[in-house]
């Protein structure tokens, strides 16, 4: 997260860290039920279930809370690693986790919020695109403003037609998600609105953060939640 501030897991209790067995954080995710985590497909491509751990209920990615193994994973078969269309996947945890002050399931948005709506993105990703050596240990949060995909693909911004209808953008001067935040939550009205997906760099002028649009991908998430 670029331009954010330290926060606590109690303020964002749906946030999880996806880690390797070594303890290195590689992506974020969101807890949506007692045993399901939503993340980005691009976080899961080429990854073995047995190589992943999920840390829940901790402000710091490297200690505390619960560290849980993964039983199975799936990502959208319409995911396109060239265009990043449909960048959504699911992890089924090996154990069921109860809700608490620091662990809470987040509902999926049914509609994409309109352009201008504030939303909060959180994660343990890098705080600066060029000169940051290590990830912040403490969870970071920043408010960005929703830009609908058509506006994001218009001449107002720099991406053009590479922004697709399964995507939604978030923009605010000098504030953005960044490398290591991928898969993590964009939240408005206490609902999961987006999944951190991509961008050209981080916090660049007229270069919004791009998120998988949860409302657009909701039916895939619900169908696959049943089968995992
Ligand atoms: C990344 O590389 C990444 N500014 C994530 C988010 C954004 C850019 C890059 C959005 O994981």
From TrEMBL:
Keyword Hydrolase carried by entry: yes
Principal localisation: secreted
Record-linked InterPro entries: Peptidase_S1, Peptidase_S1_PA, Peptidase_S1_PA_chymotrypsin, Peptidase_S1A, Trypsin_dom, TRYPSIN_HIS, TRYPSIN_SER
The entry's keywords: Disulfide bond, Hydrolase, Protease, Secreted, Serine protease, Signal, Zymogen
Highest rank taxon of the organism: Eukaryota
Record's GO cellular component terms: extracellular region
PROSITE patterns the record matches: TRYPSIN_DOM (PS50240), TRYPSIN_HIS (PS00134), TRYPSIN_SER (PS00135)
Listed GO biological process terms: proteolysis
Annotated compartments: Secreted, Extracellular space
Residue ranges of domain Peptidase S1 in the record: 1-226
Catalytic activity entry: Preferential cleavage: Arg-|-Xaa, Lys-|-Xaa
Record's keyword annotation contains Endoplasmic reticulum: no
Entry GO MF terms: serine-type endopeptidase activity
Family matches, as Pfam families: Trypsin
Family the entry assigns: Belongs to the peptidase S1 family.
Entry protein name: Peptidase S1 domain-containing protein
Source organism of this protein record: Drosophila virilis
